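Internal QA ticket QA-208
Title: Verify multi-chain structure generation after dependency bump
Assignee: T.L.

Test input:
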Amino acid sequence: MTVSAHELLATPDRASRERRERVFTLWMLLALTIAIIALLALLFDVLKVGIPRLNAAFVTDFPSRVPERSGAYPAILGSLWVIGVCAAFAIPVGMGAAIYLEEYAKPSRLNRFIEINIANLAGIPSVIYGLLGLAVFVRFLGFGRTVLAGGLTLGLLVLPVITIAGREAIRAVPPSIKEAALAVGATEWQAISRQVLPAALPGFMTGVILAISRALGETAPLITMGALTFVTFVPNHVLDRFTVLPIQIYNWTSRPQEAFQETAAAGIVVLLIVLLTMNALAIWLRNRYQRRW
Amino acid sequence: MTPTRLRSSDRSTVTMPNPIPDTTDGLRITPRQREVIFQTRDLTVSYGERPAVRDVNLDIHAHEITALIGPSGCGKSTLIRTFNRMNDLIPTARVQGSVLYRGTDLYAHDVDPVEVRRRIGMVFQKPNPFPKSIRENIAFGLKVNGISDDIDDRVEAALKGAALWDEVKGDLEKSALAMSGGQQQRLCIARAIAVAPDVILMDEPCSALDPIATARIEDLMQQLKTRFTIVIVTHNMQQAARVSDRTAFLTAEVDEDGDARCGVLVEYTQTKTLFTTPADPRTEAYITGRFG
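Actual output:
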């Protein structure tokens, strides 16, 4: 007996299968819409309130009891100082740890233990780092509630993230590059420092920028370790007291006057601009130096 | 530029004057050829407890191309990597027996693996240029060896030596990754010869290349053997027959007590002899295509 091609190809449940496909596609579209709408609503709300309040004076004025005259100048500079200290500490230490773990560490139980715990550290709530900073930097080392203590606290917070990013960037460089360098008579350190690290740098920088922008948005650890909330001066060195943008925003939102809500929104806009710029830079770096081996 | 300018104080082997006659069809032995570059004595290389290649005794002669052939897992790559201590990179690798290079045990305590690799260059299976310019790819080896004068001349000489100069001379700042696979592999050869090695090890250098690029590399090898000693690992028997003077056939043997496979050297002789009148039935089975 013969079966016609039509009998083989025309399946009876085709309609129901297509219906299922459609339902699934719709469901995913809905999920996407919810996520986007929530984000857009938030942005719109902040921009609507914040943009009219935002002007040049806002970024050059000191905070004031009068909402209209309040500015974020000390908070912006405080953020820059703290992030500067944080980066100066976390980037070299994180990179060093990453190089050691990827290139030098022999597979041993201790190293395995260290590796697992670095991943764990990245998941610890940031308040805990604030308590650590308070105990170690502020009290034990006697730095006080200063830029130095704040920067180091945030540095510890992002150190695991930077280490992990560094390891991944190094691992993305094919081992054949290191072999090639060794094969022409380079020492291990020459091979790592002149070939592996330069090739890993763009990936590493992407991770660093994302980690730093996380530190920039942190509030809890700095409040825990005792950063100021109302500052009428600008930090001039690392042993000055300080506040940062997120704390300043938090402070404004808790004021009773309605006008301070606008000031807070303007502060949020400034913070958002800085964060989005950094993220854009990270994406640009990633695309610019992306390599196909 | 003549190769003489590449000579640095103690590397006289770089500038051998006349190309020696082709020896693939005969046994014209010159004194230079009798010189033994590598001697392995009861060489066993293990990864952890498991030996990858066992009891290899092999002499490699100057200015010849020695091919190592055999089926997958016979330890030929492991073997070639003992000649420049590349196996040092694998923490579990262990070498027993000895590898003598011009009479010196490469694995002696006072031997510096960095110096070993400078004298014994290597070209890898997949072209692995640095993600930098053509020029920098070659200059790197010079710089790490403390050579900072006449970089341009040395780069040019190395590229000419690798038969690549005419194709790239106009644009040495171009990224090496923008070159074709065959060009990349010749760049890797140029990079190896730029530091004036004595020996060039090639670990399946053509396995990622098309037949035309492969032919160019094979031609190049014939030119290079007048200046260097070449050891090549290849899974391609025809290639071994075409390019090499001597061929070593290795195979993987299954242990008495289990399924652990370990490489052994079956036969090592003139290439022509090995491919026409193999002494061992295992060699014959392999070259006639009955296994592997």
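Spot checks passed. The CA atoms of residues 50 and 265 of chain A lie 4 Å apart.
Status: verified.
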